[in-house]
Amino acid sequence: MGTTWSVQAALSGGHAAGEAALTEAVTARLAAICAQMSHWDNASLLSHFNTAPAGSTITLPRDFAQVMAGALAVARVSGGAFDPALGRLTDLWGLGPNPAPAPPSLAALTQARAACGWHRLAFDPASATLHQPGGVWLDLSGIAKGFAVDAVVDLLAARGVRHALVEIGGECAGRGLRPDGDPWWVDLEAPPAASLPGLRAALHGLAVATSGDYLRGAHTLDPVTGQPLIGSVTAVSVLHPSCMQADAWATALGAAPLPRAQQLATAHALAARMVLRSGEEWLSPALQAML
Predict the structure, then answer these.
(1) Which of 72, 126, 187, 246 is deepest in the core (most CB within 10 A)?
(2) Where does this protein hold Mg(2+) (predicted)?
């Protein structure tokens, strides 16, 4: 998926000798997820769907189906602020594996936008089938990393490792405690120019995902215009028991206009921190209650 992963785990004596086996298991789990949902892999199932002829239907494996269900649910309730079907636009802007030598032309943008949109997808969760209406490219980079974090946490727990911090591309989930009895503390980063007080989260059964433009520049696309989004919010962090949900909602809140983002965070009881380009911050009622 174009990023890295790390696991910190408190292993008991029985697990210490199996560290290599755990590493192999995590690597295999992530490889399987990438083989399904990575748009960096031309052989992935996602890439196969993107190039499938109009009218075709693909049966999704359980992981892919779970991510699609979650992605479309957030797309619906956010009014499309999160959109898993912007693949043609992200490719056009060089936000994936294929660099763009120059900004796209207006004609190319118009053509790509016509082929995008989550509302063009027909997904049947009962049969786990996804219909390709023709020309739709999926891009699950705003949710698949979070799902992968959850998957690794579950894998470790199934193998008896219940005290761990899992991180993929900056998205984190913590379970149990550190060996010193503290929770897994994670600092929520903010742009240095913001000069905001630090915010440290205890990931004790929680995950956190951040979406921002202060490191890589504007890389979140406005689903309406197809242009890189430069709004009043420069970074959004969401705390949630599910890293998949935190990942998708951080993207959605970052793409929505500020009043709408604040409304969504409040209405859905999301623990969210928004860092404004003005250097101020907004904390959702759910996050204020946690503090």
Answers:
(1) 246
(2) 142, 247, 251
pLDDT per position in the chain (291 positions), as tens?
A: 888 999 999 987 665 558 888 999 999 999 999 999 998 899 999 999 999 999 999 999 999 999 999 999 999 999 999 999 999 888 887 777 777 788 888 888 888 888 889 999 999 999 999 999 999 999 999 999 999 999 999 999 999 999 999 999 999 999 999 999 999 999 987 666 667 777 899 999 999 999 876 555 455 677 777 777 666 788 899 999 999 999 999 999 998 999 999 999 999 999 999 998 888 899 999 999 998
Which structural domains are found in the chain, ordered by start? 171-290 (3.10.520.10)
E-only strand ranges, the chain: 5-9, 57-59, 122-124, 129-131, 164-168, 171-175, 185-188, 199-202, 206-212, 233-240, 271-276, 281-283
Contacts of residue 176, Cβ cutoff 8 Å, sequence gap at least 6: 10, 162, 163, 164, 204
User: Cα(248)–Cα(149) distance, rounded to whole angstroms?
Assistant: 13
How many beta carbons lie within 10 A of that of residue 287, not counting itself?
21
225 is in an annotated binding site: no
Q: Beta strand pairing status for 233-240 and 206-212?
A: antiparallel
- Check the annotation: does 247 bind a ligand: yes
**Beta strand pairing status for 164-168 and 5-9?**
antiparallel
222 annotated as belonging to a binding site for a ligand: no
* Encoded tokens for 190: 């903010």
> Is residue 76 within 8 Å of 28, Cβ to Cβ?
no
Residue that is written with structure tokens 């109009």 in the block: 54
For the record, the structure tokens of 102 come out as: 């120059």
Question: β-strands 5-9, 57-59: how paired?
Answer: unpaired
Q: Specify the pTM.
A: 0.92
What is residue 175's DSSP assignment? E
